[in-house]
Amino acid sequence: MSKQTVLVIDDERDIRELLTITLGRMELDVDAVGSVTDARSALAGRRYDLCFTDMRLPDGSGQEIIELIAASYPDMPVAMITAYGNVDAAVNALKAGAFDFVSKPVDIHLLRRLVRTALRLSEERKAESGAKAAGGPGADRLIGDSPVMAEVRGKIAKLARNQAPVYIAGESGVGKELVARLIHELGPRSAGAFVPVNCGAIPSELMESEFFGHRKGSFTGAHADKEGLFQAAQGGTLFLDEVAELPLHMQVKLLRAIQEKAVRPIGGRDEIPVDVRILSATHKNLAALVEQGLFRQDLFYRINVIELRVPPLRERRGDVPKLADFVLRQLADEAGTAPNRLRPEALAALEAYHFPGNVRELENILERAMAMCEGDTIEADDLMLPQRAPAAVPTQATPESVLAAAAGIPAPVAAGHDGSLEDYISNIERDTIIKALEESRYNKTATAKKLGITFRALRYKLKKLGID
Hints:
Blueprint: E1 5-9, H1 13-25, E2 29-33, H2 36-45, E3 50-54, E4 56-57, E5 60-61, H3 62-72, E6 78-82, H4 87-96, E7 100-103, H5 108-128, H6 147-159, E8 166-169, H7 176-185, E9 194-198, H8 207-212, H9 229-232, E10 237-241, H10 248-260, E11 262-263, E12 272-273, E13 277-282, H11 286-291, H12 297-303, E14 306-309, H13 320-335, E15 341-342, H14 344-352, H15 358-372, E16 377-378, H16 380-383, H17 399-406, H18 421-439, H19 444-451, H20 455-465
Parallel strand pairs: 1-2, 1-3, 3-6, 6-7, 8-13, 8-14, 9-10, 10-13, 15-16
Antiparallel strand pairs: 4-5, 11-12
Helix pairs in contact: 13-15, 14-20, 17-18, 18-19, 19-20
């Protein structure tokens, strides 16, 4: 079996020799060059399994090399060699497509771990020939054929191939942890642990011990050594859910652990190197919290190298039927029964609903409907969907206020309004639909698109509101 090959690009002779000796001892075949020009020639003349490049080179930058490899040799992992503490360069390299980075002076133990992970990734890419980009194992759990979900799946497959920290943004209930698990499972760390932690569920005084561990006798109640979450995720992925809930003092310690790739347990003398990929998520606006001084800007930039937004369910209403079918089958498997069926009216009601709680709310609604329905068929009434209402009622239903109320935008309360709130809302909804029908020349397909709902949901509303 032929040796795996590595290209080292650095203008410092000492670094080239150090990496050549270290990688040679790992049974790797190493080529070392000192310029962008020589690197281009080497890449054109030979196929490599891994590349290391310095940031500053005599005739260009390592960023050029990373961009070249990302464009022309996408199956080759590339790692950036940066000066100690140069976080900006490392972040830019990761955004450009680098697999990971190492800081000078090079830590040999960290380097070896990085190489092993990178070569696993290289082998997986070649063996699967892009199969992960088309879905891959586990992607079937991310239900939906809408364009926005196809885009999310494509980004997951791409992000799984490198080690850049990913910030997963999205409302509560959209499936941020599932997305994080798929990034882990589709990447070279899939054999390692996936360690999820809800940052809002750990008491502030226990956070340091939970994240970094402690030594026996380091504080009252520390009766034995305990490893922290970073050590538990060694070689795998640490998922920081609700990262916005971290107190400021812990944000400082977390930033250091991420930058130095090492942790110091409470009561310990030495730092322990850790090889962990960081994924994080929150339903809050993290950038706004940074502006308010509630979240450290340096930590924000460190965990938000790449942002992946998971869309709310109302932006992919076409996925509701498939999601509902999947959930009903799951619930039936858990109960050991045949799956319940949704009546067309019930499915239309689901498609028309705005789902403030997203997929999690859909699961709860269907579980409740299974308990309430007669037999194995779920009617619209069994769903018990809450009525959507604006926060307040406008004094006069002008075209502007009608559209605002239909969108749930607060407006002034009407004085002396005699009708019921439900009737008033139905009138607003009816006027909005009629206006959309007129503007679309009574083309129902175009009307549904204008209103942002499915054709089936429009038919349900037309029937419910008595619009011919």
